[in-house]
Design a protein that fits this description.
There is one protein chain. By secondary structure, the chain is an alpha+beta fold. It folds into 2 domains: 251 residues, Zn peptidases (Aminopeptidase, 3-Layer(aba) Sandwich); 110 residues, Alpha-Beta Plaits. The protein has a 6-stranded mixed beta sheet, sandwiched between helices. It has a 4-stranded antiparallel beta sheet with strand order 4-5-19-18, with no helix packed on it. It has a 4-stranded antiparallel beta sheet with strand order 11-13-9-14, covered by helices on one side.
C-alpha cells in the first residue's frame, strides 16, 4: 500500500504540473488520456469538451459505476506551478483541487489490480472538464448525458474532502450585471451618472439583503470592473454576482429580490442588464440512502467520523436529475484556490483505503443504482 501511495502522490504532482485552467484543459486531458492508454484500459476516448473516458471491465453482471474527478483549476495559465514537498505536506496551486482527485482515479485502479479484485460491474473513469467557476459544470453535464440513469452510481472524487460525504447539492445562480451611462468628465459633467458609482450603489444594496442561516444562503460579488480613468465618469461598469442556497425556494426568493433591485435602478440615464453566466441545480439523496450509509461505514473503518454535508460540485448534475451520486475525498488540506494550497500526506492512505472499500462493497448495495 505504501508503494501505491508514493506512486499516487508522484502522479498528483505530475498532473499538477500541467496547466489546466477552466476552458483550457486540453493539455492535461491529453496527458490523462495517455495514462489511461498506458494502463491498458478499454474504450479510451476524449470528447469535444476535453472530458476523458476509460473503462475497466468487470464481469458485466450489473450497471456500471461512474467514477469522476474534474481536471480544471481556478488558476490562469501563467500561474507558477512550483511544488514544495515536505514530509507531512505537499504545497502547490491545484495540488488538492483537484490534481490529487484525478490521480486517485489511477490509485483506485492500482489498488484493485494489486488485490486482484475483479468487480461484478464495469467502472467508467471520467476525468471531467469545466467544473470550476464559469465552466458551469459543462463537463459533467456531458458525462451524465452519456450515461444517464443506467448506472449504479456517480462517484465524484475531490482531493481535499476526506471525512466529508457530499450527498446534497446546493443550488447556485450567477449573474453578470452590466451598468451603462453616457459617461463624461469628472469636473465639467459632474452630477451626471457614473456607471461605476451606480454599480457600487447596487453592490451595497444587494449585499445588505438579510440572508437566512437555515437553510444556508449566501451571495458574493467576486469581480467588479469598469471605468477608463480617474477623471472620467465611467460609461460602463460590471460585476459578477454568485448566489447560493441549500433550498431551491430560498434561492429563487433571493433571485427575485435582486432582480427587483436591478429593475428599480434602471432609469432614463442609467441602463442595467442582468445576464445569467452560471446555473447549478440543487438535488440530494437522503442520509439513509445505501450509498451514504456505505460511505459512512467505510470512513468509520478508517477511524474517521463522517460529516454529511452539502456543496457545489460535479455531483450537482446527477443529483439534480434524481440519479444516485455523492462526493468522497482523498485527504485533508487547506488554502484551496490560492497559490499556497496544500495537501496532508498522512491521511492519503486512509482516503484511498476508504475509496477502494467503497467501490468493492457497493456491489452489495442492491438498491444503489437507477433513477
Amino acid at each position: 500500500m505504501a508503494a501505491i501511495i508514493n506512486r499516487l502522490l508522484d502522479l498528483a504532482i505530475q498532473i499538477q504540473q500541467v496547466p489546466s485552467p477552466t476552458f483550457h484543459e486540453g493539455q492535461r486531458a491529453e496527458f490523462v488520456r495517455g495514462l489511461f492508454i498506458k494502463e491498458n484500459l478499454q474504450d479510451v476516448s476524449m470528447d469535444a469538451l476535453n472530458n476523458v473516458f476509460a473503462r475497466l471491465p468487470g464481469k458485466r453482471e450489473g450497471l456500471p459505476l461512474i467514477v469522476s474527478a474534474h481536471m480544471d483549476t481556478v488558476f490562469p495559465e501563467n500561474t507558477g506551478l512550483h511544488v514544495t514537498r515536505e514530509e507531512s505536506r505537499i504545497y502547490g496551486p491545484g495540488i488538492g483541487d483537484n490534481s490529487l482527485g484525478v490521480a486517485a482515479l489511477f490509485g483506485l485502479l492500482w489498488n484493485l489490480r494489486a488485490r486482484r479484485i475483479e468487480l461484478p460491474f464495469d467502472i467508467w473513469f471520467a476525468a471531467s472538464a469545466c467544473e470550476e467557476g464559469l465552466g458551469d459544470l459543462r463537463g459533467i453535464k456531458a458525462v451524465v448525458e452519456r450515461f444517464g440513469a443506467d448506472v449504479k452510481a456517480y462517484l465524484v472524487l475531490e482531493g481535499m474532502a476526506l471525512g466529508h460525504v457530499y450527498h446534497r447539492a446546493i443550488g447556485v445562480r450567477r449573474y453578470r450585471v452590466t451598468v451603462r451611462t453616457a459617461g463624461g468628465h469628472s469636473w465639467s459633467d459632474y452630477g451626471q451618472p457614473s456607471a461605476v458609482h451606480e454599480a457600487a450603489r447596487l453592490v451595497t444594496h444587494i449585499t445588505s439583503l438579510a440572508l437566512p442561516a437555515h437553510p444556508r444562503t449566501t451571495l458574493n460579488v467576486g469581480l467588479i470592473k469598469g471605468g477608463t480613468g480617474v477623471n472620467v465618469l465611467a460609461a460602463d461598469a460590471a460585476f459578477d454576482l454568485d448566489m447560493r442556497s441549500e433550498s431551491t425556494d430560498e434561492l429563487n426568493m433571493l433571485i427575485g429580490q435582486v432582480e427587483k433591485i436591478i429593475r428599480s435602478a434602471n432609469g432614463r440615464y442609467v441602463k442595467i442588464e442582468m445576464e445569467v453566466i452560471g446555473s447549478r441545480p440543487a438535488g440530494e439523496i437522503a442520509a439513509h440512502h445505501p450509498l451514504v450509509q456505505l460511505a459512512q461505514e467505510c470512513l468509520g473503518e478508517q477511524g474517521l467520523n463522517a460529516t454529511l454535508t452539502s456543496g457545489s460540485t460535479d455531483a450537482n448534475i446527477p443529483l439534480s436529475r434524481g440519479y444516485p451520486a455523492l462526493v468522497l475525498g482523498i485527504t485533508t488540506g487547506g488554502s484551496a484556490h490560492t497559490v499556497h494550497e496544500y495537501i496532508d500526506v498522512e491521511p492519503v492512505g486512509r482516503g484511498m483505503e476508504c475509496l477502494t472499500e467503497f467501490v468493492v462493497k457497493i456491489s452489495d448495495q442492491n438498491g444503489a443504482g437507477g433513477k
